[in-house]
Amino acid sequence: MPAPTTPARSRRARTLAVCAVPVVALLASVPFVPLPFSVAQPGSTVDVLGTHEGRQVIEVKGAPARKTTGQLRMTTIVVTGPRVDVDLGDVISGWSRTDRAVMPHDAVYPVGDSDEEVDAHNKADMKKSQDAATDAALRYLHRSPDELKVGLSLGDVGGPSAGLLFTLGIIDKVDGDGRGGDLTGGRTIAGTGTIDADGTVGEVGGVPLKTQAARRDGATVFLVPKAECSAAKANLPKGLRLVPVRELQDAITSLRALRSGDEGNVPTC
Question: Taxonomically, which superkingdom (predicted)?
C-alpha cells in the first residue's frame, strides 16, 4: 500500500514541476538559438579564358590575344552571410554532409559585421589579387606594363583566391605554353590559390568544397596550393586529379607535361 503523501512532499513535487517548465522550454529552444558559425557550400566556377556576365574576363592590349582552347576555371564557395542566423540544426546538417562545411563565424568574417562591409572587403581583396596576378604574369612573360595592358573583370565575385588562375589565364592568352600550344591542352583545368607578384602561390579556404565545384563543372585537373593537399584530398570527387603547386612555374611545368602526355612527371597530392 503506497505511503500517504505528506504536505511537505506535495509542496516539493509542485516546486520541481514549476522549475521543470523553464528548463524544458530552454531545451526546446536550443535548436533555434543562433550559434557563432557560418555554413559554406560549393559555389560557382568561372572560365577566366572566357566571358562572365557578358564581358571577357581577361582583356589584353598591346599584344594580340591568342585564340585558346580548353578552360581555366577559378572556383568559389558560397557562405551564409554575416548576419544570417545559423542554428543547431544547420550545424548538425553541415557536419553530416560532404557538400557543406561548418566554420567559426569570426574566421569567415574577421572584418565587418554587415553585408556592405564584407562586400567592400572582398572587392578590395579581389583588386589586390588582380594586380598581383598581372604583375606575376608580366614578370613571367618578361613584358613591361608600358607595352602590355591587362584588364580583368569578374563582376561581383570577390576575394583573393583567383590569383593563380588569373595569372595562368593571362599567360595562356599571350603566350600559351610557350611552344605554340595552349596551357590547358584542351582540358578543363580548375584550381585555386592566391599569388604574389613574384609568383608565390598562397593558401586559401574551402578547398574540399572547391574541388566539388570544379568536378561538377567538368574539370579533370585541379591545381591546389601544396600546403593544402591534405584538405583537398578530403571527399575528393572521382575523376579529379590534384596537382600541387608552390610557385607559378610549378603550375606551368605541370600543365605543359600534361599537354605533352608526360604524366609521369606531373606531381600529385
Answer: Bacteria
Whose CA is closest to 108, among 123, 118, 95?
118
Length of the chain measured in residues: 269
Give the pLDDT confidence of 122-159 residue by residue, as tens digits.
788 888 989 999 999 999 999 999 999 999 988 777 77
Strand ranges (E), the chain: 37-47, 51-52, 55-56, 58-61, 71-79, 101-104, 149-152, 188-191, 194-195, 201-202, 221-225, 241-245
Using DSSP's 3-state secondary structure scheme, residue 74 falls into strand
CA distance linking residue 216 with residue 194, whole number of Å: 22
pLDDT in tens, 31-40: 545 668 888 9
Alpha-carbon distance of 161 to 202, in angstroms, equals: 8
Phi, psi of 60 (to 5 degrees): -115, 130
Grid coordinates in use for 64?
594580340
Q: Which residues pair with 39 in a beta bridge?
A: 102
Please tell me the distance from the alpha carbon of residue 187 to that of residue 71, in angstroms, as a whole number. Answer: 6
Q: Are strands 71-79 and 188-191 parallel, antiparallel or unpaired?
A: parallel
Alpha carbons 231 and 248: distance in angstroms, whole number: 20
